[in-house]
Amino acid sequence: MHLRGRVVVVTGGGSGIGAAMARRFAAEGARAVVVADRDEGPARVVAAEVERAGTAGVAVRTDVSVEPQVRALVAGALQRFGQVDLVCSNAGVAFGRGLDAGDEDWAQAWSVNVMAHVFAARAVLPSMLARGAGYLLHTCSAAGLLTSPGDAPYTVSKHAAVAFAEWLAVTYGDKGIRISVLCPQGVRTNMLLGGLASGDPAARVVAAAGELLEPEQVADAVVEGLDAERFLILPHPEVATYLRRKASDPDRWLAGLRRLVARAEVPRHGTHP
Ligand SMILES: NC(=O)c1ccc[n+]([C@@H]2O[C@H](COP(=O)([O-])OP(=O)(O)OC[C@H]3O[C@@H](n4cnc5c(N)ncnc54)[C@H](O)[C@@H]3O)[C@@H](O)[C@H]2O)c1
After folding, report:
1. pLDDT tens digit string along 145-199?
2. How many CB atoms lie within 10 A of CB 104?
3. CA-closest residue to ligand 1 atom 23
4. 60 by DSSP, 3-state: which?
5. pTM for the whole thing?
6. b/e string for 44-58 if b means 16 or more Cβ within 10 A?
7. Is 154 annotated in the active site?
């Protein structure tokens, strides 16, 4: 899929990877970028940047964990622009907690990192299927393919998000619908930098695991991956190697991760009281 002339919705678009994608889509000549975020101020700033690039930019305050809000977001975009070509379901949350994660953390991981993708698909797929064309990009994480030592709810919910995207690709891939999962390792955004500043064990392992990319580099990988209509978009190509190692020898892969964790000194139960 080329971005020129497309109508795109990006959730979590006020910051980090979502903001970088929104700007890059505008630079690629998208017709409209709807920037959705629970924080309206940053979403407005990004929408204004999109406008300055000559693309219609709209900011919509949306909590993606609340289905009626996601439905209203998509309905608003359909009403205003006639169609939605690409939904980037990108908002996500991390916790930096292990067994000490509370039920409310697990519930939030489920609602933001998993159900938000389900809500987006429910909202937009009927119009896409009616046209026989449409694209869903779900920002998951390398943690959804491998693991995120130090963050149990994040790891489990991101695995579920990858599983849902695979299910969508199998179910709708022959009906004109394209699905990609974006699975980066460390990216220099508020999520990771905030975690590093507070000594979050998961963030420390991510930083120890390899190169931290800028959000703009992730947006480059997204544009290339959408162009190729590739299911797995891996801005850190080494993640493909880790995935192969995991599949071919899980015990060796787990032992290697334990060594990485020991080097980064991650407490087994997280750092939070
Ligand atoms: N930064 C990394 O190292 C990294 C690595 C792999 C995957 N990811 C994933 O990338 C995605 C984007 O994160 P980021 O790194 O750009 O972080 P970020 O904190 O810069 O941006 C996340 C955005 O999502 C928004 N958001 C959070 N919960 C929301 C909700 N319920 N409704 C609407 N908006 C909400 C936040 O307000 C924020 O603007 C997330 O899904 C994250 O899990 C990040």
Report:
1. 999 998 999 999 999 999 999 999 999 999 999 999 999 999 999 999 999 998 8
2. 9
3. 12
4. strand
5. 0.96
6. bebbebbeebebbbb
7. yes
